[in-house]
């Protein structure tokens, strides 16, 4: 139980409702499970990101007394991004809980159960929306729950998108060579960032064609400590320096259309264990009470209706999933 008090007998404060909805376990999807995006609370509704050239050059040796080499000025660029505001509301009506009582007593626990169910649904919707936004950001595009493009991270940071054509329809394609190319591109562009490995989330179509390719099939069949005939290796199959995992996530947009998290027939490779590449900023709620405070992932509050027939439940999230180094993600696709 998250709530233990009858909401019709005592109002919950913003802090109590927010704590309650954040205590509801979020439906964990692949990106959340990977822990890829670091959460960063902020106190304003805009994010200022400073990028600067971090190229490291070796220092030359000179004769004693000779002029020393001089550090060149570091070019800095400052960009501002607005944090998306995502509100969602529900209503708890007296008619929904009228006459509900715990059997053999006068307790109103069923009222609390109805409230908890509504909080769980609100939590699930926000969690699904965040997963979708993070998945899209991972491919280089920040898209909201209506499918609208908010930011193109490659364009914002003036970085060319790296794409590798695996040509899975050609039996002679050097798949291992392309896998190494993707991993080496990521390694070459770390520029001071850290990583623990390279991971790839791919669509079911890409995964099936990859594992069926002659250059991969044998390695797939004899995967260490795994057997495709016994285990579900779609959750992580290591081939060379990259672990490939199938991601069939999909959601229904606010427009009613279905949207896949990974485009059909494609995939995206990225580094794991980074510090500042993948960040989700959380801004405070659009309320007087939260001005100047650090943002939380999710907020909830209740307002009793003047006619006394119910309570309006308000929730909101203000997330900005950002890929600060979009040159560390690689689009994988097959042209045949």
Structure commentary:
This protein is of the alpha+beta class. The protein has one domain: Alpha-Beta Complex (phage-related protein like fold), CATH 3.90.1690. It contains 8 helices and 18 strands. The strands form 6 sheets. A 6-stranded mixed beta sheet has the order 7-18-13-8-10-9. It has a 3-stranded mixed beta sheet with strand order 1-14-17. The longest helix has 30 residues.
How does the SSE layout of this entry go?
Blueprint: H1 14-23, H2 30-34, E1 38-41, E2 46-52, E3 76-82, E4 86-93, H3 94-97, H4 109-138, E5 141-143, E6 149-152, H5 153-156, E7 162-165, H6 175-188, E8 197-202, H7 204-212, H8 214-221, E9 237-239, E10 242-246, E11 250-252, E12 258-260, E13 267-272, E14 278-282, E15 299-304, E16 310-317, E17 319-323, E18 330-333
Parallel strand pairs: 1-14, 7-18, 8-10
Antiparallel strand pairs: 2-3, 4-16, 5-6, 8-13, 9-10, 11-12, 13-18, 14-17, 15-16
């Amino acid at each position: 139980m998250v709530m233990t008090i009858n909401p019709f007998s005592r109002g919950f404060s913003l802090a109590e409702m927010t704590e309650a909805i954040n205590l509801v376990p979020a439906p964990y999807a692949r990106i959340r499970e990977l822990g890829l995006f670091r959460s960063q609370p902020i106190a304003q509704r805009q994010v200022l990101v400073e990028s600067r050239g971090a190229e490291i050059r070796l220092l030359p040796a000179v004769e004693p007394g000779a002029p020393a080499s001089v550090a060149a000025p570091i070019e800095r660029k400052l960009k501002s991004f607005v944090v998306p505001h995502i509100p969602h509301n529900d209503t708890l009506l007296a008619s929904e809980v009228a006459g509900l009582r715990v059997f053999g007593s006068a307790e109103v626990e069923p009222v609390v159960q109805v409230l908890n169910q509504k909080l769980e649904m609100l939590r699930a919707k926000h969690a699904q929306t965040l997963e979708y936004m993070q998945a899209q950001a991972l491919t280089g595009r920040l898209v909201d729950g209506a499918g609208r493009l908010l930011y193109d991270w490659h364009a914002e940071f003036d970085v060319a998108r790296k794409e590798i054509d695996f040509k899975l329809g050609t039996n002679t394609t050097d798949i291992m060579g392309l896998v190494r190319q993707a991993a080496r591109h990521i390694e070459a562009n770390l520029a001071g960032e850290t990583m623990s490995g390279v991971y790839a989330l791919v669509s079911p179509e890409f995964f099936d064609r990859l594992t069926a390719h002659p250059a991969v099939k044998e390695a797939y069949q004899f995967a260490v400590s795994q057997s495709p005939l016994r285990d579900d290796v779609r959750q992580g199959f290591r081939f060379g320096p990259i672990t490939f995992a199938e991601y069939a996530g999909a959601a229904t947009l606010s427009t009613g259309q279905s949207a896949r998290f990974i485009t059909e027939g494609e995939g995206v490779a990225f580094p794991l264990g980074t510090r500042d590449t993948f960040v989700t900023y959380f801004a405070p709620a659009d309320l007087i009470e939260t001005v100047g405070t650090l943002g939380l992932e999710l907020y909830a509050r209740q307002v009793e209706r003047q006619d006394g027939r119910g309570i309006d439940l308000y929730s909101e999230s203000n997330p900005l999933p950002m890929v600060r180094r979009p040159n560390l993600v690689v689009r994988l696709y097959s042209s045949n």
